[in-house]
Amino acid sequence: MRPTRVVFVLVPKVHLLDLAGPAQVFTTANDFGYGYEVHYVAESEEVTTAQGVPLRAQLDWPEIGPDDLIVVPGWRSPRLSPVPPIGPATRERLRDHHAAGGTVASVCSGADALGASGLLDGRRFTTHHDLTDELAARYPRAAIVRDVLYVEDDRVITSAGIASGIDLTLHLVAVAHGAEAAARVAREMVVYARRNGDELQESAMLRHRDHLNDLAHRIQDVIDARYADRLLLSDLAGQVGVSERTLTRIFTTATGLTPLRYQQLLRVERAEHLIGHGTTIETAARTVGFEDARMLRRLRSRTTEPAAG
């Protein structure tokens, strides 16, 4: 059997990691014998990336069939241009490949190319959180799914952006060759964890780091590293050299959460990841530091993050 052909469509100002992460997954999988053949095509022979590195690409497309994959990596787009940077011929190739039974995928703003080709109409999709409103308005016949890593709908697969392209392509390797194959590739790439598509784009660690208070960041560093441990307020205060009262005031002002609530969020998020990969709720609860599953169940049932208190 011939290998699965993966065709990356490169556009001006393509993001290196949008391209390199997925390409690394498939080439590493091929090194292990899982059978992938990677091609890079563009509408010009040289494409300059968003990071300034010039890339060479093929003008002629390889022959592809229903078992092959087209991937459109994202490009630099603080705001999307009125017209996606792919021409009519490329849009037609995307449509024809899907109509013939093939799969088409995108990373980040690459979803705009799929939308311009008509492939998002009537389907669910996602993109980078900074672009969701814009693409939802641009493609009203599609259904945007916010704050997830990737969405698969009728052989049209869209991902959030940048690093999430790795999660998407590891998922495709798992579908084609099994979870063991995807885990083998992830280990070789030193990927910390293979995430499911419905996991949040931003972890709790990142969502509550959008402040400029150095002391609060230092406290978060301690909690991030030891979230599964029993952390006393007095221990935290001693590590950063302030009183318990000062620590609580500064941390709550900076993050909107008490230190305890922040630690709980980290525990629940990690537990959700474990449960999503087949761990029982009881085992997940103990792994992240709860004595039993009752507290985890109670915290999981909360649909919003409450104000600190």
UniProtKB/TrEMBL annotation:
InterPro entries documented for this protein: Class_I_gatase-like, DJ-1/PfpI, Homeodomain-like_sf, HTH_AraC, INH-QAR
Protein known as: AraC family transcriptional regulator with amidase-like domain
Keyword Signal assigned: no
One Pfam family here: DJ-1_PfpI
Superkingdom in the source lineage: Bacteria
Matches recorded under Gene3D superfamilies: 3.40.50.880, Homeodomain-like
Keywords on record: Transcription, Transcription regulation
Every HTH araC/xylS-type domain range: 217-309
Secretion signal, residue range per the UniProt entry: none
Molecular function terms, GO-annotated: DNA-binding transcription factor activity; sequence-specific DNA binding
